Amino acid sequence: KGLSLARPAIEASRRRPWRCCAAWMAEASQRVFLALWPGAEVAGRLQHIALEAEKRCGSRRMRRDTLHITLAFLGEVAESRLPLIGEAMATLQAGRFRLRIDTSGYWAHNRIVWAGCRAWPAQLDGLVGDIRCALADAGLPVATENAFFPHVTLLRKAQAVAALPEFESIDWPVDAWVLAASSPASDGVGYRRLTGWPLT
Ligand code: ATP
Ligand code: MG
Asked: What is the Rg, in whole angstroms, of the alpha carbon atoms belonging to the chain?
């Protein structure tokens, strides 16, 4: 049945090969998410914790430029729909805040070692809620299977360890959020920041 449904399209594309190409291009998508990206100083300090953690766990450390906190995960979005994300984000207004990275942990279900916050300002929950609502209103639902918990993945494929390194808490001033795309890279995953919005 599926084949017979597809046949007219195949025959049409034989007659007009550029149509096939156009259809293929329209299908192109990107795996995208909204995130907080640290500046150079905070990224450097997070990397230092990752280096210490790596000494204790057999694992793959995240490169410094990949360190981030995911706010909302969209997954595959057709490239033609990416501008909807920008339009939805441009409607939001939110204030700056500071995060205190003061704890770390290991999750057995996905074998990551992370650094995160014991507590975080209500503005962050507000921002995440607003982002998710604005995206849903734009017909772009986000993954909600996990409650939001701000964390930076430091190590992947990590072994459980008795103790993670102690570290001095990191003060992270947050003044923007970004849209990022992920794609497989030879040395793990690669992220590209596509665009961002300021907190005022
Ligand atoms: P890979 O999946 O290739 O091992 P990755 O998890 O870093 O690498 P993505 O799966 O594209 O790359 O995820 C991008 C970001 O979104 C990461 O911070 C990831 O933790 C987060 N993320 C992925 N899937 C979900 C989800 N279902 N819910 C919430 N956050 C997610
Ligand atoms: Mg993933």
From this structure: 20
User: 29-51: b or e for each residue (b if 16 or more CB lie within 10 Å)?
Assistant: ebbbbbbbbbeeebbebbbebbe
6 CA distance to ligand 1 middle (Å): 33
What tens digit of pLDDT does each residue of 62-90 get?
999 999 999 999 999 999 999 999 999 99
How many Cα atoms are found within 13 Å in the side-chain-facing hemisphere of 133?
A: 8
Token pair of 192, please? 């590209």
Residue of minimum CA distance from atom 8 in ligand 1: 189
Tell me the C-alpha distance between 86 and 172, whole Å.
Answer: 25
3-state helix, strand, coil in the chain (%, to 5): 35, 35, 30
Mutation probe of ligand 1 site: the residue of 76, 151, 179, 182 with most atoms within 8 A of C-beta = 182
